[in-house]
TrEMBL record, chain A:
Pfam families given in the database record: SUFBD_core
Segment forming the signal sequence: none
Cross-referenced InterPro entries: Fe-S_cluster_assembly_SufBD, SUF_FeS_clus_asmbl_SufBD_core, SUF_FeS_clus_asmbl_SufBD_sf, SUF_FeS_clus_asmbl_SufD
Organism whose genome encodes this protein: Acidisphaera rubrifaciens HS-AP3
Protein name, entry field: Iron-sulfur (Fe-S) assembly protein SufD
An annotated GO BP: iron-sulfur cluster assembly
Source organism phylogeny: Bacteria, Pseudomonadati, Pseudomonadota, Alphaproteobacteria, Acetobacterales
Domain SUF system FeS cluster assembly SufBD core: 166-389
Automatic annotation (TrEMBL), chain B:
Ranges of residues in domain ABC transporter: 5-249
The keyword ATP-binding belongs to this UniProt entry's keyword annotation: yes
Annotated source species: Acidisphaera rubrifaciens HS-AP3
Family: Belongs to the ABC transporter superfamily. Ycf16 family.
Entry annotated with the keyword Hydrolase: no
UniProt-listed SMART domains: AAA (SM00382)
Alphabetical UniProt keywords: ATP-binding, Nucleotide-binding
GO MF, one example: ATP hydrolysis activity
UniProt protein name: ABC transporter FeS assembly ATPase SufC
Length: 419, 253
C-alpha cells in the first residue's frame, strides 16, 4: 500500500515542478514546502497520526487543478443554501467575486502564501502540500470591537468522472481584540476530487469566533482540512463541525489556548453511511492558565461506515487551572459500522481538571417501541431518535441562521441513513 | 353489544418462558374492564402483546380488534386503529421535546387516517388546555419526554397523551401506582371523560381505590397467565378484603 502512496507523493512533486513558475507570489515558500513534503512523503497508517485513516484513495489524484466549470444552475443551487447571508464564494480553488457578497464590516485581504510560523505545523505533510499548491483563499480581518456575522464561506469543487483533480485553499482569519464573527463554512461539490484546505485563525484578546462548518462534499471526494487556531487572553473560539459528505474525510484541528482565560469548543458530528470514512483529529494545547476546552463529538454510523476521533489535550506547565473535557459518542446503526476513539492527555501542570470519555450504543428498542405505540412509523421513530442524539449539539449553535443551515444540511441526510 | 376487543386462548412467551397460558377475554364496545392479579402474573405482558411489542412471541390464540386481526398489525397501525397503552414504566426520550413528541404522534396518526395535520400553534393550544385539565405544570410540555419527571409526572404524561390522542381503546397498566389521591382523581377523570359508547378500556390495577373512581363493568383476575375468575365491580371489593390467596387456591382446586 505504501507503494501507491509513494507514487502519489512523487506525482505531487513532479506536478509541482511542472506548474511552480505559474503559481502566484514568490516561489520561495512553495519550494521550501516542497522540500518538507519530499522528506516527509504522504503519511501511511504506520504514522501514529494516521493510524485509523488510510489515504489509499489519493492513489488516484493527479494533484492538478480541476478543469471543469461549475454550471450556472449548479452554482445557483449551492448558493441558495446560504440563505441570503453575506458570502464569499470559491469555485475550484479560486475566488469568484461575482458570486460573492461581502458585508461592509469585512474587507478581503490579498492572498499570499507562506508556511505556518510554527515548525511542527509547517512539517505536516498536507500543510506542506497546501503551501506548494494553494492559489487562493479567504483573507479577512475583523477590526477591534467590530461585531460581524454571520458570513458564509462557500467552497465548491467540480471534480472529474475518472480523473481526480485537486484543490488547495488557504484561508487566513484575524479577529482583533474584542471583535466578533460568526463564520459558516460550507464545503460542497460534485464528482471525484481531492480537497486539501488549510485555515489559520487568530482570535485576539476578548474576541470571539463562532465557526460552524458544514462539510457536504461529493460522496466521491477525498477531503482533508487542517485548521490552526490561536486564542489569546479571554478569547473564545467556538466551533461545530458537521461531516456529512466525502468518501474519505478528515477534519484536523490544532487549537492553542495562548492567553489566560481563553475558551475553545471543538464540537463535531459525523453522519456516515455506505463505506464513508470520516475522521476528527484534534490537538488542543493549553499554554496559559485558567483556560477551558470542550469537545463533544457525535458519530452516527450506518452500513459499513467508519468514524474516527483522535483527541489530544496537552497542558503546559504554566497552564494551571486548566479545564479540559472531551467526549466521543457513537450511535451504531449497523453491526458492520465501526468507531475508533483515541483520547490522549499530556499534562505537565499539577492543578488541572481534565476528563475524557467515550460511549458506543445503538438505538434503544424500548424508545422505538414507545414511539411506535403512539402511532409514529418505525422509520420516523428512528429519525426522531437520531435527531435527538444530535439535539444538544445543534442547540449549542448560537446563531439562528447558522443553526438553520446546519439543520437544512442534516435534513438531506436522513435518506442516506436508510431510515 | 358488539365486541370491541376479543382475546381467544392467547398464549405468549418471552425467552422460551410461557407467560400467557390461554387468556380469553371479551370487552364489548363502551365497557371498561379491570384486570387484577398478583405481581408477575402476566398483566404487563398482556398489555405489551396487545400493543405489539416484539420481544414477546405469540405462540397461540388470536385477538380481534373491531373484527380485525390485531396481532397481524404493526404497533403504529394498532395506534392508528385507536389502541393506546399507558405504560407501567413510561420511557424517557432525552433530546425529544414533549410538545414535539405529542404533535409528532398526533399528526402521524392523523396522516395515517387521511386527516389534515394540526399546525404547531393550534396544537400548542390544545396541549396546554389538556395539560391544565390534568393539573400538569405547563413546563412539562417544554421538557424532554419523561426525562427527570417524577413517577407521578410520568403517569400524568401518559394521561396527557391519552387525552390528546383520543383512542377508542385504552389500556392503563398500573397507572395508579405511586399516585396520591388527587392524581388518582385526575387519572379517573381522564378515563371517565373518554367514556362513550364507542370507547372501551382495560384498566390494570392492584387497587380498589381507582376502581371506586372508574367503576368497571367487569373485573378479571389474572393468575399465572390465565384468567381464573371474572365478576362485577364487587369482585374488586372482595379481593381488597381477602387478597388473591383465596382466588388462587380456588383456581388450583
Ligand atoms: N423482558 C423479560 N424477560 C424475561 N422475563 C420477563 C420479561 N418481562 C417479563 N418477564 C416475566 O414474565 C412474567 C410476567 O411479568 P409481567 O407481565 O410484567 O407481570 P405483571 O405485570 O403481572 O406483574 C414475570 O415472571 C416476569 O419476570
Ligand atoms: Mg406489570
Amino acid at each position: 500500500m505504501s507503494a501507491t502512496l509513494e507514487q502519489a507523493g512523487s506525482r505531487a512533486l513532479a506536478h509541482f515542478q511542472a506548474v511552480r513558475d505559474r503559481l502566484p507570489g514568490c516561489p520561495d515558500a512553495r519550494v521550501a514546502a516542497a522540500e518538507v513534503f519530499r522528506s516527509r512523503g504522504l503519511p501511511s497508517r504506520r504514522d501514529e497520526a494516521w493510524r485509523y485513516t488510510s489515504l489509499r484513495d489519493l492513489g488516484a489524484t493527479s494533484f492538478a487543478a480541476p478543469e471543469a466549470e461549475v454550471s450556472p444552475d449548479a452554482a445557483a443551487e449551492w448558493i441558495s443554501l446560504t440563505r441570503g447571508l453575506p458570502r464569499i464564494v470559491f469555485v475550484n480553488g479560486r475566488l469568484r467575486p461575482e458570486l460573492s457578497s461581502l458585508p461592509a464590516a469585512i474587507s478581503l485581504g490579498s492572498f499570499e502564501v507562506s508556511a505556518p510560523k510554527d515548525a511542527t505545523a509547517a512539517a505536516l505533510p498536507f500543510v506542506a502540500l497546501n503551501t506548494m499548491f494553494a492559489e487562493d483563499g479567504m483573507v479577512i480581518t475583523v477590526d477591534p470591537d467590530i461585531e460581524c456575522g454571520p458570513v458564509v464561506l462557500l467552497a465548491l469543487t467540480v471534480g472529474g468522472n475518472v480523473d481526480m483533480p485537486a484543490v488547495c485553499l488557504r484561508h487566513r482569519i484575524a479577529l482583533r481584540s474584542g471583535a466578533r464573527l460568526t463564520l459558516v463554512e460550507v464545503a460542497a461539490g460534485s464528482g471525484r476530487y481531492f480537497a486539501n484546505c488549510v485555515m489559520e485563525a487568530e482570535v485576539a484578546d476578548g474576541a470571539k469566533l463562532s465557526h460552524v462548518r458544514i462539510q457536504r462534499e461529493s460522496i466521491d471526494a477525498t477531503t482533508l482540512s487542517t485548521l490552526f487556531v490561536d486564542a489569546s487572553a479571554g478569547a473564545t473560539y467556538d466551533s461545530f463541525t458537521l461531516a456529512l459528505g466525502g468518501k474519505l474525510a478528515r477534519a484536523e484541528v490544532h487549537a492553542r489556548l495562548a492567553g489566560p482565560g481563553a475558551t475553545v469548543h471543538l464540537n463535531a458530528a459525523q453522519l456516515l453511511a455506505g463505506s464513508q470514512h470520516a475522521d476528527v483529529t484534534t490537538v488542543v494545547s493549553h499554554d496559559a492558565p485558567a483556560c477551558a476546552s470542550r469537545q463533544t463529538v457525535k458519530n452516527i454510523l450506518a452500513d459499513r461506515a467508519h468514524g474516527v476521533f483522535q483527541g489530544k489535550i496537552e497542558v503546559a506547565r504554566a497552564a494551571q487551572k486548566t479545564d479540559g473535557y472531551q467526549m466521543n459518542q457513537a450511535l451504531l446503526l449497523s453491526p458492520e459500522a465501526e468507531i475508533d476513539s483515541k483520547p490522549e492527555l499530556e499534562i505537565f501542570a499539577d492543578d488541572v481538571k481534565c476528563s475524557h470519555g467515550a460511549t458506543v450504543g445503538e438505538l434503544d428498542g424500548d424508545q422505538i417501541f414507545y414511539l411506535r405505540s403512539r402511532g409514529v412509523p418505525e422509520r420516523d421513530a428512528r429519525t426522531l431518535l437520531i435527531r435527538a442524539f444530535l439535539a444538544e449539539s445543534l442547540a449549542d449553535i448560537e446563531d439562528a441562521e447558522a443553526r438553520r443551515m446546519a439543520e437544512d444540511a442534516l435534513e438531506g441526510s436522513w435518506e442516506k441513513l436508510g431510515r | 353489544m358488539t365486541a370491541m376487543l376479543t382475546i381467544r386462548d392467547l398464549h405468549a412467551e418471552i425467552e422460551d418462558k410461557p407467560i400467557l397460558r390461554g387468556v380469553s377475554l371479551t370487552v364489548p364496545a363502551g365497557e371498561v374492564h379491570a384486570i387484577m392479579g398478583p405481581n408477575g402474573s402476566g398483566k404487563s405482558t398482556l398489555s405489551y402483546v396487545l400493543s405489539g411489542r416484539d420481544d414477546y412471541a405469540v405462540t397461540g390464540g388470536e385477538v380481534l380488534f373491531d373484527g380485525r386481526d390485531l396481532l397481524a398489525m404493526e404497533p403504529e397501525e394498532r395506534a392508528v386503529a385507536g389502541l393506546f397503552l399507558a405504560f407501567q414504566a413510561p420511557v424517557e426520550l432525552p433530546g425529544v421535546g414533549n410538545a414535539n413528541f405529542l404533535r409528532t404522534a398526533l399528526n402521524a396518526q392523523r396522516r395515517a387516517r387521511g386527516e389534515a395535520e394540526i399546525d404547531a400553534v393550534r396544537f400548542l393550544k390544545l396541549a396546554r388546555e389538556a395539560a391544565r385539565r390534568l393539573a400538569m405544570p405547563e413546563d412539562m410540555l417544554k421538557r424532554n419526554v419523561n426525562v427527570g419527571f417524577s413517577g407521578g409526572e410520568k403517569k400524568r404524561n401518559e394521561m396527557l397523551q391519552m387525552v390528546l390522542l383520543q383512542p377508542r381503546f385504552a389500556i392503563l397498566d398500573e397507572t395508579d401506582s405511586g399516585l396520591d389521591i388527587d392524581a388518582l382523581k385526575i387519572v379517573a377523570d381522564g378515563v371517565n371523560g373518554l367514556r362513550a359508547p364507542g370507547f372501551s378500556a382495560l384498566v390494570i390495577t392492584h387497587h380498589q381505590r381507582l376502581l371506586e373512581l372508574i367503576v368497571p363493568d367487569r373485573v378479571h383476575v389474572l393468575v399465572r397467565g390465565q384468567i381464573v375468575r371474572s365478576g362485577g365491580p364487587d369482585l374488586a371489593r372482595e379481593l381488597e378484603v381477602s387478597g388473591y390467596g383465596a382466588v388462587i387456591r380456588e383456581a388450583a382446586a
